[in-house]
Amino acid sequence: MKEIVRPFIPFALPEIGDEEIAEVVDTLRSGWITTGPKAKKFESDFSDFLGGGVESIAVNSATSGLHLALEAIGIGPGDEVIVPDYTFTATAEVVRYLGAEPVIVDVLESTFNMDPEAFKAAVTPRTKAVIPVHFAGLPCDMDAILSVARQFGLRVIEDAAHALPARFGGSLIGKLDSDVTVFSFYANKTMTTAEGGMLVTSDPKIAERCKIMRLHGISKDAFDRYSSKNPAWFYEVVAPGFKYNMPDIAASIGIHQLRRLNNFQKKREAMALVYNEALADLPVLLPASASIGDIHARHLFPLRILPGAGTKRDDFIIKMAEFGVGCSVHFIPLHMHPYWRERGGLKPEMFPVSHLLHQQEVSLPLYTRMTVDDQEYVIDCIKKVILNG
Fold first, then answer.
1. Residue 1 pLDDT grade (very low, low, confident, very high; cuts 50, 70, 90)
2. Banded pLDDT at 312 (limits 50, 70, 90)
3. Is 109 buried (19+), middle (13-18) or exposed (0-12) by CB count in 10 A?
């Protein structure tokens, strides 16, 4: 009998439905494909989703949003911004865009999130802001981080690339007392626009600055210039801005992804529970869950392969791929990358927790298009690799 070849199970896949496709087609047929009415609707819908009281600004990536946020609060040469070591480089690189210096601190072993005590110890007279990262969709201890920030008069920008629709203290991330929150809609995130992000703030001055700088420092956006009067063609450049706007084609996808987001999260949570129950007796460490009353966005399922597992993390990934299962690693800490290591003279012993986590962490497939059969197969493969070495 011919052996049945099972399709490869990737690390992540987006779930795009007929509604998203129809909205994109409508946008293409409308003739307005860059930033316009669909982007405005997506922004309005996003603010409504968070519960109002904030302004949402659609951008072409979360990286762009972080850059705009730092620029809007006045970060510049000589300033320091504290960031966690266990994050993607974008969190730190945006600080360098403005000539400021990222100060990198260790994280908590239990959550992979910024250690509030390490944050507090790193504050100097040059520190102007902090960027906590909600790793994998699990909220940071924002009470502790906001308390330290208030103590030293620092601005807080949340890197919430993983954290939609997470909740902390009962409130959605995006509605806390930080200055700005930035979300990502990259292809593998909890919702997607293919590429894109959303900057959210309750501060009208920050919102106005970000809108201006999002599109070349022009005093009105493209949609206003081509659809308004008095006179429609006139604009003024008031600052040397950037090209960070989200086109309507991308926003068309986001409008419908946002409507499905809560159901996406429920499915991810259910899948995480299946992993937790199935893997509980193996020599691994399961990811932390959200506190009672809070919500984990479950963007990632970061498993830690312990020394007694009979296989190392790198070998685990290779063997899983041989079984037709894609896994990934989140992240290679900042201190291990040549640019950050050489610039700051960073060494592993400066970040013992982050370095340990990186040696053990593997991100399992977790996406809403996974079937029950897919997940059962992944679990079976994990057990084979862990138990048989």
1. very low
2. very high
3. middle
What is the pTM for the complete model shown? 0.96
Q: Which two structure tokens, joined as six digits, stand for 208? A: 């106005």
Structure tokens at 313: 């993390």
Mean pLDDT of the chain: 96
360 CB-near residues (< 8 Å, 6+ apart): 285, 304, 305, 306, 313
Q: Is residue 225 helix, strand or coil?
A: helix
Retrieve residue 379's tokens.
Answer: 């679990």
The pairing of beta strand 167-168 with beta strand 171-172: antiparallel
Please provide the CATH number assigned to the domain covering 18-258: 3.40.640.10
User: At 58, which amino acid appears?
Assistant: A
* Burial degree of 205 (CB within 10 A; 0-12, 13-18, 19+): exposed
Classified by CATH at the fold level, domain 261-388 comes out as: Aspartate Aminotransferase, domain 1 (3.90.1150)
Task: Assess whether 2 carries a catalytic annotation.
Answer: no
Out of 175, 189, 267, 319, pick the active-site residue.
189
Are 27 and 205 in contact, with CB atoms under 8 Å apart? no
Each domain of the chain, given as residue ranges in start order, spans 18-258, 261-388
pLDDT above 70 for 216: yes
* Range of weakest confidence among 1-5, 289-293, 307-311, 376-380: 1-5
Cβ(87)–Cβ(107) under 8 Å? no
Q: Is the pLDDT of residue 264 over 90?
A: yes
- 59-to-86, 210, 262 alpha-carbon distances in Å: 24, 10, 22
